[in-house]
Amino acid sequence: MSTSTTPPAPSPYYQRHVFFCLNQRDNGERSCGDFNAQAAFDHCKKRVKAEGLAGAGKVRVNKAGCLDRCAAGPVAVVYPEAVWYTYLDLTDIDEIVESHLKGGQPVERLRVPPHLGR
Amino acid sequence: MSTSTTPPAPSPYYQRHVFFCLNQRDNGERSCGDFNAQAAFDHCKKRVKAEGLAGAGKVRVNKAGCLDRCAAGPVAVVYPEAVWYTYLDLTDIDEIVESHLKGGQPVERLRVPPHLGR
Questions:
Q1: What is the SS3 assignment for A117?
Q2: Which residues 88-107 of chain A have a CB within 8 Å of chain B?
Q3: How far apart are CA A108 and CA A85, in angstroms?
Q4: Cβ contacts of residue A65 below 8 Å, gap of 6+?
């Protein structure tokens, strides 16, 4: 594999593309779906629309399968910035929308610690 | 909304994070699920594992819901580079894995034209 990452396109189709893990495991293992991920996704999508942020050149809020950072769950990631979040409740989602998706300022207190993976 | 995009983290958790739209509509509208998106996702995931590219610091191949660029479907996107692809068959997926995910060189002929959205 190449060791460097190609820089992102100067004008990505979405300025910020948010992916929420909505994975639900039924085998007893921890999964984001156990932590109201669907409600967080729905709320984020609604808030982004209400703020007029949704669409090409702006923000897209997306469903995703397991992002494989389950130890930090529930998680969401914002690309192309590659900012990973965990959240407790809808107030956290509001802060991500307001500060980061609208204001461009990542919410430091909600970032996933770099070492946390599966 | 802010007008600029925060640069991606210098070392994103995944060097390349690939999202396949697996959306399947049942209302007659075009959706990526009509074009063997699941088979393409499965094949990509298998090839990435076989090449030893899978994991933190390397490549993650992910399921996603509708990416809202249905006119170009089936689509997949590679972040943080924000390179959007369309594909016809598993040979196209092999080329994306070999050239881009392994070699760092995007496959120009498979890129989604910038104007194509929903």
A1: coil
A2: 101-106
A3: 9
A4: A21, A22, A23, B62, B63, B64
In this predicted complex, what is the ipTM? 0.93
> What is the value of pTM for the model shown?
0.94
Contact map slice: B 38-77 vs A, CB within 8 A? 51, 53, 56, 58-60, 62-69, 77
| Three-state helix/strand/coil letters over A13-82 | CCCEEEEEECCCCCCCCCCHHHHCHHHHHHHHHHHHHHCCCECCCCEEEEEECCCCCHHHCCEEEEECCC
* Residue B75, token pair as written in the block: 């689509």
Q: Residue B2: name the closest of A6, A10, A75, A106 by CA.
A: A106
Nearest-angstrom CA–CA distance, B6 and A80? 8
What is the full DSSP assignment across chain B? --SS-PPPPSS-SSSEEEEEE----SSSS--GGGGTHHHHHHHHHHHHHHTT-BSTTSEEEEEES--S-GGG-SEEEEETTTEEEE-SSHHHHHHIIIIIIITS---GGGBPPTT---
Cα–Cα dist B72/B113, whole Å: 8
From first to last of its 118 residues, what are the pLDDT tens digits of chain B?
555 666 666 689 999 999 999 999 888 888 899 899 999 999 999 999 999 999 999 999 999 999 999 999 899 999 999 999 999 999 999 999 999 999 999 999 999 999 899 8
